[in-house]
Structure formats: C-alpha cells, structure tokens
C-alpha cells in the first residue's frame, strides 16, 4: 500500500476528520494512537505525509498542545526518526524515562512508546520504518542536530516523494522506498549520542530563548517556561543543573541587564521606579538592592556615572 496523506483541520469535528483520513491512507501498520480528551476537543493540525510500502513519513504542525492517552504507542519492530523544527516534542519509554526534544534536534528511537506529546505550535517531521533498516547498537533513544547535510537530504527526498508518489509506477515506488531507507541510515549513522546528555543543553537553550522573549511578563518563572516547553519542572531543573545555574538566576540576571540598558539609554524617559516595574522588580528598593549586588552601585549612581562619561567623551 502506498499513497499520500493530507489534512488541515480545526473545529468541532477536526479530530474525527483527521482520524478517518489517517486510517484510510496510512492503514493498520501505522495506527493512530488514542489521544486525551483535551487534545481531541481542541484538535487543530496541519499534516502532510505519505505511506510507501512499509514506511511512513509525516510532517505535523499542531496549533494546540496534544498528548496521547494510551499506555503503548507504535510497534516493537519500528524505528522512528523525529526531526523537530519548532516548539518541543516529548515522548516516554515504557520503562518510565521521558525525553524532550526542542527545535533543531533529530531523535532516533526504536520500539514502542508509552506516550508522546507536543507543545503548542510545534512542527515535527517523523519517518517510521522497519527497525531492521536502521540497525543501531544503542538501547536508548539517540539525538543529534537536525541541520546536518544528511538530515537535509532526507527531508528533501521525502518532500519530493510526497509530491510525486501518486504518479509513480511500481518501480518508482520501490526506488523511493529504497532511497528513504538509505538516507535514514545515513541520518542516523553519525553525530548521535544518548538522548539526555545532548538534549539537556538544547533544552536549556530553548528555555533561555523563551525567557528572553518574556522578560517583562510578570508571569515568567521556571515553572511557566517548563509548561510552555511541555516538560516537567524537574526535567528543566536537571537541564540547568548541568550548567551550574538555575533558570531563575538567569531570568534575574537578564532582567537586570535590560534594566541597566534602559537606565543609560540616551534621553531616557522612564524613572528608576518605572524601570523597576517594567522589568518586574517588586519595588524600587528591591530593584536598588538587586542592582547594587550585581553592578556594585545603585541604579541612580550607575546612571549618573554613565551620563558623566558620555558628556566627557
């Protein structure tokens, strides 16, 4: 069985429409996992993919968070290559271990899953193929950068297959399938390591990037960042523990840096109190103590010194 799959759905019956189309196009070997009620009720996705013989490829973009509801997902004799382009993708192993992949990562995983989930606005591509096609010595999931030449070639070939599959004859389908397998082996063959050591720095960077965009948000916290990245607070804490500095310390330092920049801005219009409020310090006294602890001077002294130095120059 081979053919293309396409769905762009949202609204009350979106999940039913998607599930019907998936079953008719992808078939039993790639059965759709059951999803939580919250996922079904808010289902909104764009999906493009294909099945070619015993392989499946799909590009999946979800507007809302999603999570499966069953205890077991997938087949024991499958290997999956996930390529995360945006957002965050999370999955669990039957033994209880959970892994999170932020944008820019390739993951390779063999066998069944306990569940998977995605943060809102996540874009991920997944290739599923027989485990025998991608033999690996690793018993754990592995991760590497998604920007390698091998991964780019794999996704480019998959895009071409998706555009032409419905017009290919049997020999063309066989060739498309064989090339996918070869490129999957190349993508999974180098630059990978056990998933946790490599994903921790990537997860920490994703958290810092998110925090940087929300420094003026009063609701910003390590717990809020963990929720938005669809990981547990403990997972995020472990990622930062390897760097020796918690996310809360990073947020505080970045707010001080932005407040300092505002203090010395030419022709600034905000008072010290207004700057303290904008960068989410409880009051000007709290801001002054934190600023002095970091820069060695009060905000007023720092701004006055910067102004004198500017005038002297």
Automatic annotation (TrEMBL):
Gene Ontology MF terms: DNA-binding transcription factor activity; sequence-specific DNA binding
Transcription as UniProt keyword: yes
Keywords: DNA-binding, Transcription, Transcription regulation
Top-rank lineage group of the source organism: Bacteria
InterPro entries the record matches: Homeodomain-like_sf, HTH_AraC, PchR_regulatory_protein, Tscrpt_reg_AraC-type_HTH
Sequence ranges assigned to domain HTH araC/xylS-type in this UniProt record: 205-305
Any Pfam family: HTH_18
PROSITE patterns (alphabetical): HTH_ARAC_FAMILY_2
PANTHER family: REGULATORY PROTEIN PCHR
Protein name: Helix-turn-helix domain-containing protein
Species name: Streptomyces coelicoflavus
């Amino acid at each position: 069985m081979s053919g293309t799959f396409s769905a762009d759905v949202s609204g009350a019956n979106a999940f039913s429409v998607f599930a019907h189309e998936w079953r008719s196009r992808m078939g039993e070997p790639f059965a759709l996992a059951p999803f939580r009620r919250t996922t079904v009720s808010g289902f909104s996705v764009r999906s493009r993919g294909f099945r070619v013989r015993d392989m499946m490829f799909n590009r999946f973009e979800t507007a809302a968070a999603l999570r499966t509801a069953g205890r077991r997902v997938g087949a024991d004799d499958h290997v999956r290559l996930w390529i995360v382009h945006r957002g965050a993708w999370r999955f669990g192993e039957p033994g209880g271990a959970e892994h999170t992949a932020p944008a820019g990562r390739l993951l390779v995983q063999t066998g069944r899953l306990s569940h998977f989930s995605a943060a809102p606005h996540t874009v991920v591509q997944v290739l599923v193929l027989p485990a025998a096609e991608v033999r690996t010595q690793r018993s754990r999931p592995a991760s590497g950068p998604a920007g390698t030449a091998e991964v780019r070639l794999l996704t480019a070939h998959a895009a071409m297959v998706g555009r032409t599959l419905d017009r290919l004859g049997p020999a063309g389908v066989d060739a498309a399938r064989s090339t996918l397998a070869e490129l999957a082996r190349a993508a999974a063959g180098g630059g990978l390591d056990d998933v946790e050591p490599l994903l921790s720095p990537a997860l920490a960077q994703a958290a810092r990037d998110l925090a940087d965009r929300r420094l003026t948000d009063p609701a910003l916290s390590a717990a809020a960042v963990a929720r938005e990245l669809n990981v547990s607070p403990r997972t995020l804490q472990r990622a930062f523990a390897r760097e020796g500095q918690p996310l809360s310390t990073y947020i505080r330092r970045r707010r001080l840096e932005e407040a300092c920049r505002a203090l010395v801005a030419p022709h600034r219009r905000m008072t010290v109190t207004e700057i303290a409020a904008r960068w989410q310090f409880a009051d000007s006294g709290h801001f002054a103590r934190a600023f002095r602890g970091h820069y060695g001077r009060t905000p007023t002294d720092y701004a006055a010194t910067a102004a004198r130095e500017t005038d002297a120059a």
